[in-house]
Amino acid sequence: MLLIGPTNQHHYSRITLVNDIDITVTAPDGTVIKPQVLDSVSSSILSLSVQGNDHSNNLEQVTIKNPTAGNYIVTIKGYAIPFGPQDYSFAYSMDAKGLQISYPFKNERWKYGENQLISWRDPGNNPVDGYQIEWSQNGINNWQPVSSTSGITKNISFTVPQQAGIASAIRVTNKTNSQSSIIDSLVIEPEIIVKLSTPCNGKVDIVWPKVIADSFSIYTLKDGFMSIFKSLTDTSYQIDGLNKDSIYWFAVAPWYSGKIGERGLAKSITPANSNCILPQFDGDFMVVQVTNPNSGRKLTSTERSSTETVSVQIKNLDNDSYNGILQLKAFVNGQLFDSLSINSSFNGFETKEFSFLRKLDLSTSGDYSIKIQLIKTGDPDFNNNSVEKWVRIVSNPVLSLPFIEQFDS
Questions:
Q1: Hey, what domains does the chain have and what are their CATH numbers?
Q2: Alpha-carbon torsion 180, 183, 187, 188, what sign?
Q3: Mean of the pLDDT values across residues 283-288?
């Protein structure tokens, strides 16, 4: 192969090639082999290339089919060099004789219904009878015809059958000389479609079908990329500790013989479901939020007084009703502020608001930590029995006019 280096062409010339260099190869028997040249006539666009003199392109390629043993002489000479000197590059390659499948590769993983391009190489051969393409679901002893092609066509589009297999194979056969090439150990599997659900706030259940695999990896979207965060042999998993107001993406990929397969399509979910029916929530109560007081600013409509009410929301996470006593404690800046004993009934999933009797003095500027703690006999989860809220009271001193701010000082 000869590559002629760039040369500035004439702006209005029909032919862009300026300095023209030719290449030929002389075989051991004295035959001179010229480069392959395409017919430039538009009606011959599908015609095959033939040997000839190329005076239009800066890249010329000589192809020697079925070479005999011996010495080959490469001749490179200038045909027309109006603006010299002219640089060029020369390279060569050798293709082993024989039919060989280029794609797929061994241990490739395909999914049901995918369109795959099976391709092969057969240097020096364009068999008159063409090629036969076959596939086997398991092993190499049960071949089924897929398609056939002409001698010059060396690829076909193949729709993957919906038949699982861990040792599927593809065979391409030259029907003229009966030579064949086989690629085995293909894994045919269905698309892993995950099912996502949120049984409770902050929890996501991921379920997927059992396919041919040794194990599975769960992907999630993190920092803009899908990355593995959990590997397991089961076909379901529950994730907790998520933000109920955020969107999460998940997908699953199979592992087989130490190699990971193509992951399935990702799905998204927002883990927001306040009506939990799982057994672990039987008898569970949670502190939802401190609803009052809120932050404020002195000498404005949001200014807080010395008699602010401390209010809190409590929710029954159980789907069954409850009738009994709840104990509430309020802490301000780490010190016990007030206690409240409630004898109340809750329907399943019901939320109620309660207020402490003692009033909180927020007339002084500063930051206030308000923490509420719930105590309930038989509560299975104490992690959701408290909540903390920070309230900031901002000072707002009166300005003496005129007021000058010296930013540069």
A1: 2-90 (2.60.120.380), 100-189 (2.60.40.10), 195-269 (2.60.40.10), 279-394 (2.60.40.10)
A2: negative
A3: 92
